[in-house]
Amino acid sequence: MTKPARVDLPGGAVRHQGLGKFTEIEESPERTICLRYAIVGAIYYEVKSRGEGVRAKYAIVLPDIKNLKEYFKMRKNMKWNTKSYYVSGAKEAGVKIISEMESLKMLEDIRSTFCRVISYGIVPWSSQQKTRINAVTVRLNSSIECRIFKYSLACFEPYLIKREKEQSFYSVPQITGFVADNLSIARPWWQGFSDFIANKKMAKIIYSFEKGGLKKMVENKEAMPDGMERIFVEICHEAWRRRMGQIGEKVKREHGSFDAQISREFEKVRVSFSRCKNVATLRSTITDFWSRAGKMEILSNNWQNVIKMFENENWKKAKDLALLALASYPSKTEEKLEEK
User: Fold this and answer.
1) What is the pLDDT of residue 336?
2) Do residues 18 and 93 both lie within one domain?
3) Which string of b and e fits 76-106 if b means at least 16 CB within 10 Å?
4) Count helices and strands in the chain by DSSP H and E runs
5) How many other CB atoms are there within 10 angstroms of residue 282's CB atom?
6) Is the pTM of this model over 0.85?
């Protein structure tokens, strides 16, 4: 019988001297060969998450490879630049590779394909080193999910922030990680948006820097298909557009600051949506928001579909979409940039 081989690999050293053989890696010869080449075959990402708690700093993706030659071709054809290896969540790294394999026609059945993603971060009890904090298996169910994710990457790209006296760095969008988390468990990409931005720090990032990308996402018919969810967002957009018009008229009469009043009203509406804890409070808040906009043709023509959003099983969905509608409505500055 062949004696298991000790594996001399980065990360394969004895972790605790007092527990020597229990914390070193020993593998059979055939598995040792796989481990030797894992360093080359794995794909590495830097994770830049703005969330709270113990966060992943790095992620290693180990794809499920059915054909080594095809995988070699994929790696050769990955014309990625530096910013392509930044993600905002560990699952995003796995979804990114599955989407790439799908776009290169490598997958016979996407549902049977998966990536193993191992993430590393800093934990309170060991701040001197990067510790493995999670290992997940990431899957997607359809080519549509791949296309939605790839579209989100096109809408939200990392951008380099240059500083004269300090090191430059990439600012990494947070929505792509959120989208990947949802798609990997077969949920609509926007589900749970209200929880995602419940953190004030995250909300500030999304509302300040990622509104333009969200606008593109909700306008895309594949990402947001025709139906009551899309209509609900469009009604909220129309209500906010009219509210801005009302404030604009008031500012002209009183010679005030349009930007300041819009900012206050936006925050007021956002907080009112965020504080809804049940179907009754949400129904009251949304109908008040819509009524202030006056008669809207889009609501009059679709009220039979929209009213379903206020049923007990849909109210959380309506809350997500209401906040998404606010987040995806571009500011006047963004509208001017788009016109140019």
Assistant:
1) 43
2) no
3) eeeeeeeeebbbbbbbbbbbbbbbbbbeeeb
4) 15, 9
5) 22
6) yes
Q: What is the mean pLDDT of residues 290-295?
A: 93
**Mean pLDDT of the region 103-116:** 84
CB 169 within 8 A of CB 161: yes
Residue 228 CB coordination number (10 Å)? 18
Q: Which helix (H) or strand (E) is 316 found in, with range?
A: helix 315-327
Regarding whether 132 and 35 lie in a shared domain, the answer is: no
In a domain, 206, yes or no: no
Same domain, 268 and 303: yes
Is position 160 within any domain? yes
77 in the same domain as 26: no
Q: Looking at the structure, do residues 14 and 26 belong to the same domain, yes or no?
A: yes
221 assigned to some structural domain: no
In three state form, how does the secondary structure of 233-248 look?
Answer: HHHHHHHHHHHHHHHH
Looking at the fold, whether 49 and 174 belong to one and the same domain comes out as yes
Write phi, then psi, for 128 (nearest 5 degrees): -80, -15
Domain that holds residue 3: 1-41
What pLDDT is stored for residue 270 in this prediction? Answer: 95
E strands in the chain: 5-6, 26-27, 43-47, 56-63, 86-87, 115-123, 126-138, 159-161, 169-171
Tracing tokens 């080193």 back to the chain, one arrives at: 129
Give the separation between CA 259 and CA 249, rounded to whole angstroms.
Answer: 13
Residue 204 forms part of a structural domain = no
